[in-house]
Amino acid sequence: MSFVGGGARLTRARWSLYLTVGLIGLAVILLIAPLVGPGAHGHGVALMSPRAVWGDGIDATIFWHVRLPRTLAAALVGAALAAAGCAFQAVLRNPLAEPFTLGVSSGASLAAVIAIRLGVASVAGTAGVGAAAVIGAVAAVALVWQLGRVGATLPPATLVLAGVTVSMFCGAAALVVQATADFAEMSRMLRWMMGGLEWTQLATVARALPPLVLGAAVLIALGRDLNALAAGPEAAASVGVAVGRTQTLAFAAASLLVGTSIAIAGPIGFVGLIVPHALRATVGPDHRVLVPMSLLGGAALVVGCDTIARVLGQLPVGVVTALAGGPFFLALLVRGKRSSALWRSE
């Protein structure tokens, strides 16, 4: 059995090698990250002793109740966003497609801001705000899907334009809601919209795991069809792919991943853009390996960024990913402009 990717024949052995290396790399990061934190008085970097983790002291409490839940949540969020970005890029055949450009993140953010303004956070806590974010993501996807569809087809350019429009509208609406809030609500909204994992608990991770596993499983199962769809709907249909069904399943699964991740950590940008592009250049464009590798790579990236955020003084992880992703996005845009790859019709 062989896969096609990156201009070279991707054998089962190489496919297994990629996943093995990815799993080992992520495991190492997950083991080390909870042990790393700010040094004394918030200066420098300190490494917690593994032996102290199994004791009864303050280090064990910090590890099991603060750092471990935060690290696991970062891994789930990163995996979800990277896999969703990979799926969006395949379906839309657009290198800039990701949860933010398609309005999914903005819709979730608007719903969460409204929930905070209405006092849902005071009654139901972060779970209530998270549920509102999932509803907002689903509503945004439904709206973008309806606006972008032309008859029975789903033109990529039309869908991206619809996503950008919905994103801008939701962003403006969120600002209007914030303008009517008091200082405490404004502070909570601002903190949430920067994306952070400061108060994550193991119970939150457990609640988020089933929908994330479901969404990831669907995208992995669609790997072969995403390969065909990335070549265009006509090419996909010519090899027996049910184009409409595949697009719908891919969008639904990716939106479930994005909504759940935003419910955990708020909007975290650029992960869905950076990881698939970086891995596509490494492992090739075959989605049967690209999707699972995006899950692993996204998890590693966000865990690493969250560790940096903790060391730098409890910064929101969304700030770190934005600082890393902004230059990457501009570089991609300039390179695409020079080669006219983003502007010619396919």
Q: Can you lay out the helices and strands and say which pair or pack?
A:
Blueprint: E1 2-5, E2 8-11, H1 12-32, E3 36-38, E4 45-47, H2 50-53, H3 58-92, H4 104-117, H5 120-148, H6 156-179, H7 183-193, H8 202-221, H9 223-230, H10 233-238, H11 243-265, H12 271-283, H13 287-311, H14 317-339
Antiparallel strand pairs: 1-2, 3-4
Helix pairs in contact: 1-13, 3-8, 3-9, 3-11, 3-12, 3-13, 4-5, 4-6, 4-7, 4-11, 5-6, 5-11, 8-11, 8-13, 9-13, 12-13, 13-14
Could you please describe the fold and organization of this structure?
- The chain is mainly alpha-helical.
- The chain is 74% helix and 4% strand.
- The chain has 14 helices and four strands.
- The chain has helices at residues 12-32, 50-53, 58-92, 104-117, 120-148, 156-179, 183-193, 202-221, 223-230, 233-238, 243-265, 271-283, 287-311, 317-339, and strands spanning 2-5, 8-11, 36-38, 45-47.
- A two-stranded antiparallel ribbon has the order 1-2.
- Helix 3 (58-92) packs antiparallel against helix 13 and helix 4 (104-117) packs parallel to helix 6 (156-179).
- The longest helix is centred in the N-terminal third of the chain and has 35 residues, at 58-92.
